[in-house]
Amino acid sequence: MELLLTELKNTIASVDDDQVPPWIRRYYHKLAYLCKKKTAEYHTLVANTNEDVNEDYIILEKQPAYTCFIAPYTYRTLKPFVVIDRETVPPRLQLLSEICHKQNRSYKKRPIVYKYLQKRHVKVINRLCEIHFWPGIDISEALEFPEFSVVVEYRRIVIGFGFLVPDATQSDAYISFIFTLPGWRRAGIARFMLYHLIMTCRGKDITLHVSASNTSALLLYQQFAFKPEEFIQNFYDKFIPPTSRECRHAFFLRLSK
Questions:
Q1: Rounded to an integer, what is the distance from CA 2 to the centroid of its chain?
Q2: How far apart are CA 212 and CA 252, in angstroms?
Q3: Which parts of the chain span the membrane according to its record (predicted)?
């Protein structure tokens, strides 16, 4: 969000005031408000924790040198990238492109990069989970089997992630999270993450829980032949705060091998 705000601010500053359409000014002020609100949330977070939280907690640390590494679970050699996507244009990038086009500014699209989970991702993803799911989520255990993970980056922003537990039971693997940031959805990102996780664990059944109200996720899983096995009432009671209006019921789905 901060990167988009900076781009928009530079665009407005590069032209005369009377040449800036009112809708762009309104959009800029709305973004500025949201960034200010997020900064306030950050200071609240820092005030309530003893951890050393980076002020740019949504922005990743700089990428170290691209090298292959050995996965501790299967001892496979993992490449630095799962895939580099130069074609997909999510709604957020389409909007940025249109703004630059209206102002006759050049716009260089960067690729969307799918990677395996790394240590530098953990703090950012934990924060995203706290914002979009519920407090207390820690995905650091997934570092033990990064070959069953996928993290999606645009520049230094995490825009999506997915994790699979390969040994949830003797015969089943379990997808714990698949998430794409708002503004980056409906572009096939979640679809590719799900496909990637399925391909990493083809020898077992794959199971997951999904909120009963999450129709878009249910449709996605149905396209990959997941079948509902059980409807669990109040499944999310132990995760969602009592004041939340989110649906507390879940479907238990299975993809048979």
A1: 16
A2: 10
A3: none
